[in-house]
Amino acid sequence: MNKSSLIDALAKKMNIHRQLSEFIVNSIFDDMTEALMRGEGIEIRGFGSFSIREYKAYTGRNPKTGERIKVQPKKLPFFKVGKDLKERVMAKAGT
Description:
Layout: H1 3-14, H2 18-37, E1 42-44, E2 48-55, E3 58-61, E4 68-71, E5 74-81, H3 83-93
Antiparallel strand pairs: 1-2, 2-5, 3-4
Helix pairs in contact: 1-2
């Protein structure tokens, strides 16, 4: 599923115009992005949580050339799957 199919599914399920559905999905994603940019975590019970993880600088290696390179410290979004979602996916995979 991609963003466009999510918008279509919401419009169909809620029986609303696609334009309104697109506005709702974009608003949710924008608010989530802004929260992460402020360093806040996002928890959606039964689905999972988003947070920012900080990584220290380290010396890496270019896999193509083998050259050693210094990788700068960085902050990246991280998703941790919720218990309910994990159990539902595992139950489906078992069938």
